[in-house]
Amino acid sequence: MKLASLKEGGRDGTLVVVDRTLTRAVKATGIAPTLQAALDEWHALAPRLNTLSEALNAGKADGAFDLDMAKLAAPLPRAYEFVDGSAYLPHVERVRKARGAEVPASFYTDPLMYQATSAGFLGPRDPVAVSSEEFGIDLEAEVLVVTDDVPMGVTPAQAAEHIQLVGLVNDVSLRGLIPAELAKGFGFLQSKPRSALSPVFVTPDELGGAWREEKLHLPMRTWINGKWFGEAECGVDMQFDFAQLVAHVAKTRPLTAGTLVGSGTIANQDTSKGASCLAEQRTVETLRDGEASTPFLSFGDTVRIDVTDEHGASIFGSIEQAILKA
């Protein structure tokens, strides 16, 4: 099934079930008022939501309406926790090589992750507002998963059972601020503003064979100002799958229902697939040409991120954002 949140009903939105074509929806408030409420009681409420989804897709759901993407908030407008990884090692290897640094051996056996911003996510059509272009505005097209309650110390096999939803995220980064922050040795802060989530989150079974080995096996398609930018394969070159990432986060603490775990920027060894963030593209150019030629985003630019099925139909709905001056 596919779930989304309307921009109404308060800070956490109003839960709706969306059909497979992303054109029709029905409120699920008789089951749970918000997606967070549904996740809090997932095992009891998911079957009821699935029944509503089946009725909607069969054209038999009372109260169904035409879906307007502009009226959608992020599926989880605010979450208790968002932990992001960097599971695609081609991205890590290139970035470090460009600045003459080696990749630590531990990166191949231990996931690289950080605590991200989760107090408020942008909706799929909300603009990215930044106060200065000098900050180095960048998109990062990623896959993420949403968990139910995860006990501390789970194994990857156990963690897989707690992955309930899959979605996309534009993990906005301000590249010009990152070096100085990381040099302090305390991680990201100002360089990681609010991110945007895809219009809908879907259950793994909705993905069919595209979800296997706890990875999404489809290309991540990105456009900047309407021009093709990349279509890196999400299921290729991912060093750690989502079960491993969830287990890593839960090693020393339990995770609350509604925790988001991101993959990090999708990147492949095959650079002909394009890139999923500007920093990646600029690094490829630097290594190839001696300098970067692609600029970071400017005010007025637009970004589109999407994943489509084998028939070209959008699965999660596209993230479409303009870059604006705050």
Summarize the structure.
It contains 7 helices and 21 strands. With 326 residues, the chain is an alpha+beta fold.
Could you characterize the architecture of this molecule?
- With 326 residues, this protein is α+β, with helices and mostly antiparallel strands.
- The chain is built from 7 helices and 21 strands.
- It has helices at 35-40, 42-57, 89-98, 156-160, 178-183, 242-249, 278-289; strands at residues 2-6, 14-18, 24-27, 65-66, 72-73, 82-85, 113-115, 128-130, 137-138, 141-147, 163-170, 173-174, 196-197, 201-202, 211-212, 215-216, 219-224, 227-233, 260-262, 302-306, 319-325.
- The mean pLDDT is 96.
What's the topology here?
Layout: E1 2-6, E2 14-18, E3 24-27, H1 35-40, H2 42-57, E4 65-66, E5 72-73, E6 82-85, H3 89-98, E7 113-115, E8 128-130, E9 137-138, E10 141-147, H4 156-160, E11 163-170, E12 173-174, H5 178-183, E13 196-197, E14 201-202, E15 211-212, E16 215-216, E17 219-224, E18 227-233, H6 242-249, E19 260-262, H7 278-289, E20 302-306, E21 319-325
Parallel strand pairs: 6-19, 8-21
Antiparallel strand pairs: 1-2, 1-5, 1-14, 2-3, 3-4, 6-7, 9-12, 10-11, 10-19, 11-13, 15-16, 17-18, 17-20, 20-21
Helix pairs in contact: 3-7
